[in-house]
Each structure stands twice: as structure tokens, then as C-alpha cells.
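Dear colleague,

As promised, here are the two records you asked about, laid out in our usual form so they can be pasted straight into your sheet.

NAME FIELD: protein one
SEQUENCE, THEN STRUCTURE:
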Amino acid sequence: YVASAQREGLRSRAAYKLIELDDRFHVLKPGAKVLDLGAAPGGWSVVAARRVRSTESGPGAGRVVAIDLQEMEPIAGVEILHLDFLDAAAPERLREALGGSADVVLSDMAASATGHTQTDHLRIMGLLEAAYDFARTILAPGGAFIGKVLRGGTERDLLDRLKHDFTSVRHVKPPASRKDSAEIYVVALGFRGTAATA
């Protein structure tokens, strides 16, 4: 995967996780507006830009906005914002950059590992909950949310919220994810809209 990523101009092996998820669930459609939370180094943003055609111009072109606190090298077809998505001004800035609501919100964020399984699980779940709380404020009806979790799955409370807010919620481990890794992904499709989440 690492060699293939270098050969294909992808920024990390993580790009293949999104490719495999999208090959299965088809969320990155041409013309879609995509928000990539915690995007550095940009592997997922590169894939999103290619699939929604944000590098093109015209009616079928999508839009991709990547947000991270870390500096990122420019990516063709991607607007990069150095911003904390928890900042009070973030939703408005991102809506402006996207030109409206997002069709897809992606989060491959992970907190630095401590080596203590329970602590790491709580930290990554905290990030996922924050990402999802944010996604609810910016997703368009019918939109999709993909976020990283650790084995053990999504906590019951968050899973219940996702099932209430989306028509379909799945846990998936893409083949590109290392077999010994505890990471899996929650894929939530068919956002019911802010009226359902109120």
C-alpha cells in the first residue's frame, strides 16, 4: 500500500482506506461537496478531490475543503483551512468555503496513542463525537458521515444518535487497514436533516 501510494501520487496508505470505503458505499459522487476534518497530511482529501472532480471546472465539478491545525502542502482541487473545527467561527467559514452545506463529512482523526487501550479508546471516541456533533451542523439532508473508531465499535449512546439521524449505519474495516490495527470505520448514510436531529 505504501509503495502504491507513492506511485499513484497519494499522500499516505490511509488514502486506500477511503478508496475501499467509497468503492463499497459510493459517497464521493461527481459534483459533491466534501469536508475533510483533521485532514493532514491530506491522503483522504486527494482521493475526495479526484472522485468528486473538484479539480475540474463546470457543472459536474465538486468541492473539497480540508481543515487541520497542522500545515499542509497544497492539493489540487482542495481548499485548505488552518483552523480548529471546534472554533465557534468554523461552521460559517466552512459553509462559505463549501458554497453551502456538505454532502459528505470525513474524519480520519486519531489522538496520539498512549499505549493504554482504554485511554486510547476514550480519546478517539471523544474525537469522533466532536466530529459528528460538528457534522450535524453542516451536513445537507441525504448526506454521509465517515469516521474512525477503535475496535469495540461506536459507543452505544453515539450509535443510537447516528441510527436516529441516518437511514443506514455500518461498521467497516477496509482491507487497507492493518490486520493488527484496532481501527474500524463508522459509515452513516442518508442524513435525515437538522429537523430530525433537533
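NAME FIELD: protein two
SEQUENCE, THEN STRUCTURE:
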Amino acid sequence: QVDEFQLPGAKASTMVEGIDVDAIIDGHRQWKVKLRDAIEKGDKVDAATLSRDDCCALGKWIYADGQRLSGRASFTALIGNHAHFHKVAGEVAQLINAGRNEEAEDALAPDTPFTNATSDVVMVLSAAKRLGFV
């Protein structure tokens, strides 16, 4: 939590192994906001793309330049956590698209697979921000 503290108006950029970790963390956290907005507005979500872990900036990096880190435990954990995040986020998107908004809202609540998956990705990236991928 402390790693993510920033003063208002401060634009931080922490590059680790060629990726902007702060931007990646923010992007994955923003999915909760995007999914809530879709529920409120009655919008559809591209669940097929969201379910894939190779379409976002982090996924593209993981399956390209990041492969040079494939022997590192924290990178392996990131792959698993990131894939799980996108699977769970895609499931929430499917609920939204099916009009099951109450279930989708419940799926975004604290201590659910979605919020836990988000935290797991953030945790690995925050550690990488401090220590690199080890």
C-alpha cells in the first residue's frame, strides 16, 4: 500500500525491465471502475478480449520481451496471477453482458475473486518495483 502512495498531481513512472509498473498497476485497477461504469450505463463489455491475458500492455510484454525473465520466480508468479485476473475479469464482463448486474456488482465487492486477483497482480508488480523481478 505504501509503495502506491503519491502526492496529488505527482506523475510517477517506475520503469522495471522495460515496463512502466505504475501505469500497469493503474490500468489493472481501473478495470473495476470500467466494469462498474458498464453496469451503471448498461454498456456491453468486450468479454472475449478482457478474458485474454495477452491483449493488455502487460500481457503483450509478458509474452514478448518479458520472456527473457522466464526463469525468475516472481515473473512466473506474475504470469499466473495476471492470467487469473483476466479470467475473473472476463467472467464479470460476461455477467454484465448477460444483464446480471446485481451479480456483477457483488463480484466487484471486497474480498471476491476479482478484487483478490487484482491485489495479487498489484502485489507482484509492487515487489518488482522495489526489487526487480527475482
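A couple of things worth noting about protein two: The beta strands are 15-16, 19-20. The radius of gyration is 15 Å.

Best,
R.
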